[in-house]
Design goal:
The chain has three domains: 100 residues, Orthogonal Bundle (Butyryl-Coa Dehydrogenase, subunit A, domain 1), CATH 1.10.540; 91 residues, Beta Barrel (Butyryl-CoA Dehydrogenase, subunit A, domain 2), CATH 2.40.110; 168 residues, Butyryl-CoA Dehydrogenase, subunit A, domain 3. It is 49% helix and 16% strand. The strands form two sheets. A seven-stranded mixed β-sheet has the order 5-6-2-1-3-4-7. It has a two-stranded antiparallel ribbon with strand order 8-9. β3 and β4 form a beta hairpin. α5 packs antiparallel against α7, α8 runs antiparallel to α9 and α9 runs antiparallel to α10. The longest helix has 33 residues.
Length: 393
C-alpha cells in the first residue's frame, strides 16, 4: 500500500463510530468493576481493539486506517463519551502505538507491525516526559530508568519510553518488549482508576538503535502527512477528543437527572439559575469543540499543501487542548453543583467527575503550557519555537 501524499481521510470513519456506539452497554456494565480492578476487562479492551480504535491511528501503508486528525479527535471523543477511563486507555495505546509505527524504520516495522490489517501488531504503552539513561553500545543502547503513568499497560505488548543518550544529550524514544521491564503496580488514585497507569523501570537493557527514533522528529518513516506534526502534537489530538467526549457525557447525565427531578418538591433544576448555568455550560463546551476542530482543520490544510507547522499553529494546538480540558473541568463543576447528592454517590456522574478532575492534571494541559502559549501570543517571545511543551529560543 502506498503512503498517502496528503492528510489521509479514511472512509472507515462512520462505521468506526457505529462500532464504538455498539459497545456502549458493555463499557457501562464493566465500569464499576474496572475501577475496582484498576484496568479494563480484557474482553472490553479487546472489543475496542477489534472495533479498530487503535488501528485508526496506524499508518495506511502498514495496514492501518490512518484517520485524519479530526477523525481521530471524534473517535476518541466517542469512546470517552461512553466511558472516560476506556477513552483514556485507548487514546494512550493509539497515540504511542501509532507514533511508534510511524517513526520507526523498516526493521522494527517488520517485527512489530507485520499484519496490522489482520490484527497482528504490537500494542505500546509508556511515558515520554521523564527520560531514562541510554548508554551507547555497539548497535544500540543500554537503557536504564524509571517511568510513570503508563496508561493502558495491562493491554500492551511493548513499552514506549523517552531516553537521553549519554554523552550527546540527544533525546530519543524507544520501543521494547514489555517483558524487559519491571512493572510497578502502584496506580492508586481517585479518578481514571481503570486506566492501569502504572510505573515501570529497567536497568541496563539492550535496545537496538533500529528500535529508537529521535524524539523531536517530524519525518515519518511510515504513513502520510498527519505524522509530520510530531509526537507531542499527536498527543494533543487524542487528548482533545478525550476532554470533549467526557465533558459532553457530563452534560447529558445532568440533562437526564434534571428530567427525573423536575416537578419534585423544591427541585433546584426548576430554577432559572440552573437553566442559565446549564445553557452556558453547553455553549462553552460546544464552542471549545468548534475551536479545536477549526485549529485542526487549519493544520490539515497546511499539511495537505506540503508545509510544516508554524509556531502560531503549534501554539494554538496546545492552547485549544488546554481550553477544551479546562472547559470540561468547568462543566464538571457545574454538574457537581446542580446534581446534588447524586454527584456523591456511585454512578456515572460521580465516575465522570472524578475522571475529568484527574485527566485535567495531565502535563499537556498544565498551567506552564498555558503560560508559554500566552508568552508567545502576546509577542513577548516572537523568535521562540516549541520544543515539546516548552518554548525555546
Amino acid at each position: 500500500m502506498t503512503v498517502p501524499a496528503g492528510v489521509h481521510v479514511s472512509p472507515e470513519f462512520p462505521a468506526m463510530l457505529d462500532r464504538i456506539d455498539a459497545l456502549a452497554g458493555e463499557l457501562e456494565s464493566d465500569a464499576a468493576a474496572a475501577e475496582e480492578r484498576g484496568r479494563l476487562a480484557e474482553s472490553t479492551a479487546r472489543a475496542l481493539l477489534d472495533a479498530g480504535v487503535v488501528r485508526a491511528g496506524l499508518p495506511a501503508n502498514l495496514g492501518g486506517h490512518e484517520f485524519s486528525p479530526r477523525q481521530l479527535i471524534a473517535t476518541i471523543e466517542r469512546v470517552s463519551y461512553h466511558d472516560a477511563a476506556a477513552g483514556w486507555t485507548m487514546l494512550a495505546l493509539l497515540h504511542v502505538t501509532g507514533t511508534t509505527a510511524a517513526y520507526l524504520g523498516d526493521v522494527a516495522a517488520a517485527e512489530m507491525f507485520a499484519d496490522v490489517a489482520g490484527g497482528d501488531h504490537a500494542l505500546l504503552a509508556g511515558h515520554g516526559t521523564r527520560p531514562g539513561r541510554a548508554v551507547p553500545v555497539d548497535g544500540g543502547f543500554l537503557v536504564s530508568g524509571s517511568w510513570q503513568f503508563a496508561s493502558g499497560m495491562a493491554h500492551a505488548t511493548h513499552v514506549h519510553s523517552a531516553i537521553q543518550v549519554e554523552g550527546t544529550g540527544e533525546l530519543r524514544v524507544l520501543a521494547m518488549p514489555k517483558s524487559q521491564v519491571e512493572l510497578v503496580d502502584n496506580w492508586d488514585v481517585l479518578g481514571l482508576r481503570a486506566t492501569h497507569s502504572i510505573d515501570y523501570r529497567c536497568t541496563d537493557v539492550h535496545v537496538p538503535i533500529t528500535h529508537t527514533y529521535i524524539a523531536t522528529t517530524t519525518t515519518p518513516a511510515n504513513g502520510g502527512a498527519m505524522y509530520r506534526v510530531g509526537l507531542v502534537n499527536m498527543a494533543a489530538i487524542v487528548h482533545s477528543g478525550w476532554a470533549l467526549g467526557a465533558g459532553r457525557r457530563l452534560l447529558d447525565e445532568m440533562k437526564s437527572l434534571a428530567a427525573a427531578k423536575s416537578g419534585t418538591h423544591n427541585a433546584a433544576v426548576d430554577t432559572g439559575h440552573f437553566h442559565a448555568e446549564y445553557a452556558t455550560a453547553v455553549a462553552r463546551l460546544r464552542a471549545a469543540r468548534a475551536w479545536v476542530m477549526e485549529v485542526w482543520q487549519d493544520v490539515e490544510e497546511a499539511l495537505d499543501a506540503g508545509g510544516s507547522l508554524s509556531t502560531e499553529q503549534e501554539t494554538l494546538i496546545r492552547l485549544s487542548l488546554n481550553h477544551a480540558t479546562r472547559t470540561a473541568q468547568e462543566t464538571g463543576q457545574v454538574v457537581h453543583r446542580w446534581a446534588g447528592t447524586t454527584a456523591i454517590r456511585r454512578g456515572p456522574i460521580d465516575r465522570f467527575l472524578r475522571d475529568v478532575a484527574t485527566g485535567a492534571q495531565h502535563i499537556t494541559s498544565s498551567p506552564v503550557v498555558l503560560q508559554n502559549c500566552g508568552k508567545w501570543l502576546s509577542g513577548l517571545e516572537p523568535e521562540a519555537r516549541w520544543e515539546f511543551l516548552d518554548l525555546a529560543r
